Structure formats: C-alpha cells, structure tokens
Amino acid sequence: MTEHEQLTELCRRLGAEPASAAVMAAQLQKRADQMAAERGVTRVAAMEYLLGVMMQARRGETPAADAPGRPPLSMREKLLTLFHATFGRSPAVITRAPGRIEFIGNHTDYNGGTVLGAAIDRGVWVALAPRADGVRRFASEQQAGVVTQGAGTLKKADGDEAWINYPLGVLAALPEFGLKAPAGFDFYAVSDLPSGAGLSSSAAIELASALAFLELTGQRPARETVVKIGRHAENHFVGVPCGILDQGVSGFGQKDRLVFIDCRGPRFDTVPLPAGAQFWIFNTHTKHALVDGLYAARHRECMAAAQALGVDLLVAATPAMLESARGELPPETHRRAKHVIEEIARVDACVAALRAGDLPAAGRLLTASHRSSQALFENSTPELDFLVDELVRAPGVHGARLTGGGFGGAVMALTAPEFTREQAARVAAAYREKHGQEPDVLHTRTGDGAAVVQSSAPICEK
Ligand code: GLA
Hints:
Elements: H1 3-13, H2 18-39, H3 43-58, H4 75-87, E1 93-104, E2 114-131, E3 136-140, E4 143-149, H5 165-173, E5 184-191, H6 201-216, H7 223-238, H8 245-252, E6 257-262, E7 267-272, E8 278-287, H9 291-309, H10 319-324, H11 331-355, H12 359-377, H13 382-393, E9 397-403, E10 408-415, H14 421-435, E11 440-444, E12 451-455
Parallel strand pairs: 3-5
Antiparallel strand pairs: 1-2, 1-12, 2-5, 2-6, 3-4, 6-7, 8-10, 8-11, 9-10
Helix pairs in contact: 1-2, 2-3, 2-4, 3-4, 5-6, 5-7, 6-7, 6-8, 7-8, 9-11, 11-12, 13-14
Bound molecules: alpha-D-galactopyranose.
Residues 102, 106-107, 109-110, 200, 242-243, 245-246, 404-405 line the site of alpha-D-galactopyranose.
C-alpha cells in the first residue's frame, strides 16, 4: 500500500466521508512536506504530529501544541489540519479574535459607564468555506463530531452542541444590522484560551465568526458594527444581558494598550500600558451553579436602582443623588448602585493614573474595585477573596481583583516584573492548601484585536 492509500484508509476510519478521504490524505501529505521544510523537523515527525492532532480532535481533546519531540504547531496550522481532516478541503477564510481581561470597570458597561480592558495574546480561530447547498456544518476541536443545520434553519442548540449558538447568534444578528448572512458553509473553530477563566471565549468566538461570515460575503462594515453584532448575538440569541465590554475589547484591542470604552455611545479608545506592567491570571475553576441567573439578577437590580433614582442608567446618577435616596432604596439596591457609581469613578481615576505612568496607583484602584465587589456588589466568592488577599501581600503586586462577571472564575493581578513565576507558584500553593484545588496560573500578554488572517477571493456570494 502506498502512503496515500494508507492515509486514505485512516481518514475513512476517522470518519471522513468516502469522497473526501483521498483528498484529505493528499492534503495531509502536502502539509507534512510543508511542515518538515518550514520547521526543520523530519517528515516522519511532522506526519506523526499531524495524525496525532487529528486523532486527539476526534476524541474531543485539545492537542498539546508543544509536546516534547514534536514540532510546535501554530494555531493557524492546527486549524488548517483539523479543517482538512474534518471537511476534506481548504477553508476560504481564516479569522482570529482574542480573549480579554477586564482590567477595571466591574458591571459598569450595561449601566452606561466606562470600562478598561485588555485584549490578550490568546483567542479563538475560525476557518470557513462556502457550500453551495445551503447546509451549515460546525465543528470544533473541543467537541467530537460535526453539528449540521439544514438550509435556512437557525435552531438554538443545547447540551454539547450549545457552543454553536455563538456563531448562530451572529448569523441571526447580521440582518438586524442591514447585512447579509452567508447561506451554506463548513465552519471549524480552535482556541488557545483556557475555558471558564473569565477571559471571554464567547466574545472571541462571536467576533471571529462575525469577521469570517462578513469576509465570506464580501462585506466590510465598520469595526464598531462588528462589535455590536457580537453583543447582539449574546443578548438576543444566547440570552445573556451582557454589556459591550467583552466584544469591544476583543474588537478594538491593541498590543501594549488597554481599550477604554465609554459604553453610553459607545465610544472606543485606547490607553497605553506603562512599560513593565505584567498580567497574571489565577483561574479557580469555581463557578457558581447559578452564574447566568445571578448576572441577570444584578442587571435587573441595577435597572431598578436607576429607575428609583429617576435616571435612565446608573451612569447618570451622582453619589449625592444616591445619598439623598438612601432611605427610599432597599439596602441591597443601594449597595449595588453605590458599587456601580463608585466603580465608574475608579475607571476614570485609573485612566489618569495610567496616563501618568503610575502603576502602583492603578493597582490600588484595582484592589479597591475588588473590595467593592466583595462588600457591595456581592459578586465575589471566598475563593476569589483568598487569592486577592494573598496576592496583594506578595512582592511586586500593584493590585488584584476578580475579572469578569464574578460569582467564581478568575482573579487578575497587575504586577511589576519582580513578581516571578516562583511567587505565583507560592500563591497557588497557599490556595491549594486552603481550598484543596490547584488554580491555573497564566502569565499573559496584551495582544491585537480581532482580524481576518487569511482570505481567498473571489468568494461565493458577493
Ligand atoms: C461579563 C459581561 C460583561 C460585563 C462583565 C462585568 O464579562 O459579559 O459585559 O458586564 O461581566 O463587568
């Protein structure tokens, strides 16, 4: 048997449609040749690696990109390999959108306030190829199998398939913005974002999907529209009443800068990150069972507080207004509103501190934000509080806070370079001692916003 025949047989056994197995085998051979030439590894090592990636994906596992003795596979290469292996052809478009850190501005976005976030150097990658029959097929390295939706349907999925609600939500949103949704396609997503770490993989997949669908149909709306499409998908299809933070940061991120959003417009800007600033994420892997319901409840409480104060959104309320209404508001509503009003002031103070290059002052504001979440907004947990307490005692830490919606998830620390991996390991060990589980520690960098990485025009529907 030739190598091509052996590979064809293997692809068949891995579930490829008979017609595509031979094409897939040829593609694998081509990619192994390219990889061996580009990376200076033997062809056997390259082929072994590609086959390993295919098999892991089939088992729903994430390939170890840097496994010893194997060539590191870039996200783009991994995506191409899995796309070929699943659909037996090349994608027409590849896009990428980053995850984000919520730097400061906790639950300020849907209250019309200001917020600062950072796009990070990890994210979601999407590959897309058009289909003439109108059928939409979705696959991801994180789930075995292909999810198929017939021509014309946008049916909300559940269970293991629920991840496709993000691209489906984007498809449903496009016409709302006067844009055209592509008809049939094959879609594959890969990610190097740790899941459940509060780094917003959902906004990343929404923006990567939106850019891919738009590129495939030759439409190039303003970046602000792409961001709004992502949020619309989340609010109206997925059903989470989030603000614009996650999508805005994923869309407007820039390396070495923070994204500033005035959510009322919304208006997007960036602020330079002073040299030496480092980010560490400690993911507790804890998640309140009712996290979505609790987020929605906070949203409702804030809207009720705004109404009681006679404003449309809490951004329009002042500390004086809140103080004079103290007797009329239930104590809980008062606490929620106080958090939001003071948090908006902290964001503005933080922008000033960053522009002055004063990282210690910015750090103190981050920790103050956490204390407010803890006492007033009540979206922290004992696990997150423990990490913040440990971190702010450690050398080189400017400040620490929960990042994202809260009720579990992750803490971020802003540090100087003298906070080392050893110190991070010490904090993780103290956490394990107390809470019995090791948190994931991620030393992350800022990165650029969502982008089309590769596109082969002309494309099916213009
Ligand atoms: C989640 C939401 C954001 C924002 C934060 C809290 O990440 O998606 O819109 O509300 O929580 O600040």
